[in-house]
């Protein structure tokens, strides 16, 4: 009996293998595209398509640097799969005709056209020679926030200059810090001078990420020291800049609470796209933990979240728990194989999906979405 059940389970699992990009027919239409050649941008219909295009265009080591997750990549896969484990609860007969006008939001008081942003990702130059400049331009065209990575292909000055005559464009700057206060002070001063409006301090990378896939091509973790980062040190850092410092990589309700107690204005839930410590939870699971155990946190500070967001409905699930804005990493990096136009198209696609998915969910005003739009009983267990 036991054996046959096991055999059945194996067959059932084999019937639904993990797919990096779910099969929505792209092979049927673009399958004959030769390696090294980009399909027409018009043929891209969703965010996962950008990865398909990038994988065909980029060389294997550059693609692998973007695609990589830590160790067995369980967190990487879970980030993508977690959204389908929670069913939506659509309401009908609701006047949703004004939904598009409710997408704009503020992030730390700055106006943007949508509640999602470009998460900080290193080495945009691997996809396109324009590198981060394209991400700045694409974000400007779509009027969304771009958080630039410290380990960018372009210099901070080049990234700032890409704002062009749109110098009012708001950028945030991500940092990794050394334990050398002189260097940190110099970095903070450069960031202020560049006009960034916030410092996003990555706290989920105390040590190197364990990156098997990337190590095969020598494109693994960039930092090889253990970082000294504590809440005491955070207070010292806060005195070194007038900019808000947002911790990125909060993964428990305890640390979210500690961040609030230590006076942060915002936190970012993230497991670094599953690239750092394998079997860490997705930000949706962390948001759910906060919702269940200390929901006031969503009112006390702005909460952002990223990891595995690929569709409008993914954004809605995070917003429904009280997340203010949602970050997207890899899809924007992959969209950059088409240059700034690709980035702009990725923004358009996601904005449209958020609006139509919200409408089909019966949400009249995106600001009023709440946890009742989702059935939070997971349809199956962790990693099944
Ligand atoms: C190629 C790549 C480089 C990244 N570099 C950084 C970085 O320099 N700093 C950082 O805090 N996070 C970095 N991240 C993590 C992203 O900020 C973000 O948390 C993650 O990509 C979100 O998951 P997603 O790619 O599934 O959207 C990187 C992610 C990728 C894919
Ligand atoms: C942001 O939008 C609000 C409401 O539309 C407006 O009153 C405010 O002036 C805007 N702020 C900036 C900096 O543009
Ligand atoms: C792959 O592409 C990247 C980005 O263009 C380049 O830096 C790298 O040298 C290339 N690697 C190989 C092995 O061709
Ligand atoms: C800190 O960095 C500065 C500037 O790079 C350097 O001059 C100094 O020696 C460093 N201090 C330590 C303790 O490493």
TrEMBL record:
Positions bound to FMN: 120-122, 149, 174, 202, 248, 270, 306-310, 329-330
Q: Which UniProt keywords apply?
A: Flavoprotein, FMN, Oxidoreductase
| Record has DNA damage as a keyword | no
List the active-site residues: 272 (proton acceptor)
Cofactor list: FMN
**Any idea which positions bind glyoxylate?**
65, 176, 211, 272, 275
Q: InterPro entries, alphabetically? A: Aldolase_TIM, Alpha-hydoxy_acid_DH_FMN, FMN-dep_DH, FMN_HAD, FMN_hydac_DH_AS
| Protein family per UniProt | Belongs to the FMN-dependent alpha-hydroxy acid dehydrogenase family.
Give every FMN hydroxy acid dehydrogenase domain span. Answer: 39-379
- The yes or no answer to whether the keyword Oxidoreductase is present is yes
One GO molecular-function entry: oxidoreductase activity
Name of this protein: S-2-hydroxy-acid oxidase
């Amino acid at each position: 009996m036991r054996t046959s059940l096991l055999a059945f389970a194996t067959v059932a699992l084999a019937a639904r293998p993990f797919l990096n990009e779910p099969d929505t027919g792209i092979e049927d239409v673009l399958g004959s595209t030769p390696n090294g050649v980009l399909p027409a941008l018009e043929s891209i219909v969703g965010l996962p398509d950008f990865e398909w295009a990038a994988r065909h265009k980029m060389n294997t080591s550059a693609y692998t640097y973007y695609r990589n997750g830590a160790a067995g990549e369980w967190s990487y896969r879970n980030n993508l799969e977690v959204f389908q484990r929670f069913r939506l609860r659509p309401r009908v007969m609701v006047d949703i005709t004004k939904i598009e006008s409710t997408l704009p939001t503020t992030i730390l008081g700055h106006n943007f056209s949508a509640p999602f942003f470009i998460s900080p990702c290193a080495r945009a130059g691997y996809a396109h020679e324009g590198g981060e400049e394209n991400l700045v331009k694409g974000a400007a065209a779509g009027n969304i926030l771009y958080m630039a990575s410290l380990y960018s292909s372009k210099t901070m000055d080049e990234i700032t200059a890409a704002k062009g005559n749109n110098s009012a464009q708001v950028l945030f700057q991500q940092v990794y810090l050394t334990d050398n206060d002189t260097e940190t002070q110099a970095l903070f001063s450069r960031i202020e001078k560049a006009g960034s409006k916030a410092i996003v301090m990555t706290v989920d990378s105390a040590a190197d990420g364990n990156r098997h896939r990337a190590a095969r091509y020598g494109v693994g973790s960039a930092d090889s020291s253990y970082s000294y980062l504590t809440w005491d040190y955070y207070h010292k850092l806060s005195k070194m800049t007038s900019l808000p410092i947002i911790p990125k990589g909060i993964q428990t309700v305890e640390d979210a609470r500690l961040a609030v107690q230590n006076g942060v204005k915002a936190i970012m839930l993230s497991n670094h796209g599953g690239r750092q410590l394998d079997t860490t939870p997705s930000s949706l699971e962390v948001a759910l933990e906060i919702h269940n155990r200390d929901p006031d946190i969503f009112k006390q500070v702005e909460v952002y979240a990223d990891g595995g967001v690929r569709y409008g409905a993914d954004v809605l699930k995070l917003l429904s728990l009280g997340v203010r804005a949602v970050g997207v990493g890899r899809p924007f990096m992959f969209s950059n194989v088409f240059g700034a136009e690709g980035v702009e198209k990725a923004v358009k696609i996601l904005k449209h999906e958020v609006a139509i998915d919200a409408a089909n969910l019966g949400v009249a005003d995106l600001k009023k979405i709440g946890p009742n739009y989702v059935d939070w009983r997971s349809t199956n267990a962790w990693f099944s």
